[in-house]
GDP-mannose pyrophosphatase (Olleya namhaensis), 194 residues
Amino acid sequence: MSTDRIKNLKTELLSDNWYTLNKLTFDYLQSNGEWRSVTRECYDRGDGAVILLYNKVKQTVVLTKQLRIPTYVNGNKEGFLIEACAGMLDNDKPEDCIKKEVEEETGYRITNVEKVMEAYSSPGSVTEILHYFIGEYSDQMKVNEGGGAANETEDIEVLELAFNTAVNSIKTGEIKDIKTICLLQYAQINNIMQ
Ligand SMILES: Nc1nc2c(ncn2[C@@H]2O[C@H](COP(=O)(O)OP(=O)(O)O[C@H]3O[C@H](CO)[C@@H](O)[C@H](O)[C@@H]3O)[C@@H](O)[C@H]2O)c(=O)[nH]1
Ligand SMILES: [Mg+2]
């Protein structure tokens, strides 16, 4: 990883308690032609995958609701967040990861998923790139209650909402998660419910 405008990149570990926080120091060639020394903290939690589960017949989507403590300490009163099903890749390919997460978190066993985009989640400070999928679900695909993997400490509520209600919840502020907003708007723009 090198460009003509970055040199002498040094990485200093600040924390590897759960994920990895590094302090990066480098020389940066500014647009005005001068080199400047820059320091940035950079949090590495690995990459992730997210999916919008949708049903065209019922005009519904399946979302999850769970405690997200960072939102609790930043303005989210009860601390719970409505999100599209998502998980961290660990060592899986994005497509395998997301199918596994769907079954663990929502209880649906789906076979077909479509990748629609990938995007950095918070590029000023977090390394994560997120792989975005959509996938159709039906009642017949339900194989368990969902709620999260048994060996993890997840406590996830599964929500089945009318697509229009979900989209409207962006306006009301009830849905306030960026990956979920991206997928709901992707669905709207591309008319996937039709
Ligand atoms: N002990 C401990 N456990 C943790 C910690 N951070 C996360 N975990 C556990 O690690 C697991 C992560 O669950 P996943 O379903 O794989 O990930 P996610 O939290 O849903 O992440 C998804 O959404 C994030 C937020 O948008 C994304 O950042 C991520 O890439 C992914 O898409 C959960 O059991 C969670 O409790 C921590 O600091 N300590
Ligand atoms: Mg998850």
Summary: Strands lie at 6-15, 20-29, 35-44, 48-55, 60-67, 80-83, 85-88, 114-120, 129-136, 157-162.
